Amino acid sequence: MNKRLVTLLLAAGIAVIFAAGGLQAGTSVEDTLKMETDGYKKRKKGAPKFKLVEFTHKKHIEEYKLNCGECHHDKDGKPLADLKMGDEVKKCGECHNKFKKDKKNKKDIMVHENAMHGNCVECHKEANIKAGDPKGRKGPAPTSCGKCHEKA
Predict the structure, then answer these.
(1) Engineering a disulfide at 115: which of 43, 55, 96, 146 sits with its beta carbon 3.0 to 4.6 angstroms away?
(2) Where are the domains of the chain?
(3) Rounded CA gap, 3 and 151, in Å?
(4) What Cα–Cα distance (Å) separates residue 145 from each residue in 1, 117, 151?
(5) How far is Cα 152 from Cα 139, in angstroms, rounded to an integer?
(6) Domain 31-148 has CATH 3.40.50.2000
(7) Contact 50, 149 (CB under 8 A)
(8) What span, in angstroms and rounded, lies between the C-alpha atoms of 103 and 119?
(9) pTM: predicted TM-score of the whole model, two decimal places
(10) What span, in angstroms and rounded, lies between the C-alpha atoms of 53 and 124?
């Protein structure tokens, strides 16, 4: 074989390796992840009173039979219905990137804490209602602060 053909084949092989690596990069989903974001690291009030909440992707998908779009949504708040495990998605804090509540708009959904509580707690209440509690506060899904937020 001549040098030109060997060089061309080598370059093509390297390109295939990089392309496969790029495709694989968006498909890694942690089984359990800490709900941390840089926005909270910048707070100046002192050490947090609670440990970071740990979210179990695997448990929510496999045991609770949720689909990804039940938590992940587009810029208009509509579920990403065709989203599947391993698709590339933004982290919550990339859009819900306010980390201090505004006194005039305490329920602003762009505040990270409000978005997390709204999404998680409301879903948990719905699960508890389906499990038989008419108010949705007691049941298999935690809705009180101390069930998700362990003291530091």
Answers:
(1) 96
(2) 1-29, 31-148
(3) 65
(4) 69, 10, 10
(5) 25
(6) no
(7) yes
(8) 21
(9) 0.70
(10) 15
Encode the chain (152 residues) as per-residue pLDDT tens digits: 577 766 766 666 676 665 555 444 455 677 888 877 776 666 666 667 778 888 888 888 888 888 888 888 888 888 888 887 778 888 888 889 888 888 999 999 999 889 988 889 999 999 999 999 999 999 999 998 888 888 87
Contact 119, 96 (CB under 8 A): no
Residue with token string 């496999």: 62
Residue type, 110: M
Hey, what amino acid is at 10?
A: L
HSE-CB for 35 with a 13 A CA cutoff: 19
Find out whether 32 and 55 touch, Cβ atoms under 8 Å. Answer: yes
Backbone angles phi, psi at 56, to 5 degrees: -105, 95
Instruction: Return the residue matching tokens 């509509």.
Output: 78
**AA identity, residue 85:** M
Tokens for 110, please give them.
């762009």
